[in-house]
Specification:
Helix 2 links the parallel strand 2 and strand 3. The relative contact order is 0.20. 20% of the residues lie in helices and 35% in strands. The chain has a seven-stranded mixed sheet. It is globular. The protein is of the alpha+beta class.
Amino acid sequence: MKKLTAIWLALILTLLAVGPATAEVAYPTTELWIETPDARHQFTVEIAETEEQVRRGLMFRTELAEDAGMLFDYDPPTHVSMWMKNTLIPLDMLFVDQFGVIGRIATWTTPLSTETIPSGGPVRAVIELKGGITEQLGIRAGHRVVHPIFDE
């Protein structure tokens, strides 16, 4: 009987811990483009605006389209560190300055890792895309992101 009670208690505590964390968070979307020497790639990204949206990011997602992602806007530009806690899929993280220039890309980030991924300098935005897409499309540091948040 004690074993059954312990199992039920563990199940209830797990549901309480997981329930709110997996609740849907609604994000506004926007279009952005990444310019490479060979092409202009369009993405539809969700914008993490509120503290809850920034905290949640792409956690608990099981898939991400090749032309989708998330935009984290840091105004004013600042040093940031990201992590993959509760993120189930690998991502490419693009660290972008105030002019839209990609300064650093962390590719194929490790799902569920709590290791921090630093920006390497002050950034205006972090863009998370499907793991491997930057390599596939030839997107590199020094290429430009086109979106209204970046200065001309």
